[in-house]
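Lecture 7 notes: from sequence to structure.
We start with the chain below.
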Amino acid sequence: MRCPFCDHADTQVVETRESDEGDSIRRRRRCLHCDKRFTTYERIELALPAVVKKNGVRVEFDRRKLRASMVLALRKRPVSAEAVDAAIHRIEEKLMSLGLREVGSERIGEQVIRELKKLDKIAYVRFASVYRNFEDVDEFADVIQEVQARKRKA
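Predicted structure tokens for the same chain:
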């Protein structure tokens, strides 16, 4: 493993821990050249379906892109990184359980909306407004009324 600070090839594993769920291993490493420490994660790599965008272009599923869009919607909201990771993990599990080689980006977007609705109502409305491409205030009002109606039922 190369050091992210000095790009030296020799690093040493200082500590290894398995995640609580048992699906990844966290390793603390130390560079033998610059002596800086960094963390790596080891996960099982499963084949996620390719994503078919609205324009028909096929791209590889990108966990980082999914995370970035969720973090943007959750900006300045009281949601932990662990909760975001768990939501992303649920989305990935759902995609793998479909058993498809390709999945439409709309389907992934709907999964994100469901997860954000569970995590934070404000983030849900933010994401939905961009994802569903609201064109007027009435569409915003409809989503807000939906959230308020669910809140009253709970």
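Points to note: The CA atoms of residues 11 and 31 lie 4 Å apart. Strands lie at 11-18, 24-31, 37-43, 50-52, 58-59, 102-104.
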